[in-house]
Amino acid sequence: MSGMSVADFLAYWLDEGEAYFRRGDYAWMAEQLAGQRVLEVGCGPGFGTLALLQAGCPVLVVDTLQECLDACRERCAANEPRCLRADITALSADARRQIEEFSPTAVVCWLMGAPAETTGAASGDGGKAVATYREEVHRAVAELATSLPGVKYLHLVDRTAIPWQAKDIGRDTLLNYHLGKTLAGLPWQASRRDAMYRKLDGNVVAFGAPRQAHPSLKSVVPVLASLLIRRSN
Question: Which residues pair with 199 in a beta bridge?
Answer without folding.
Answer: 223
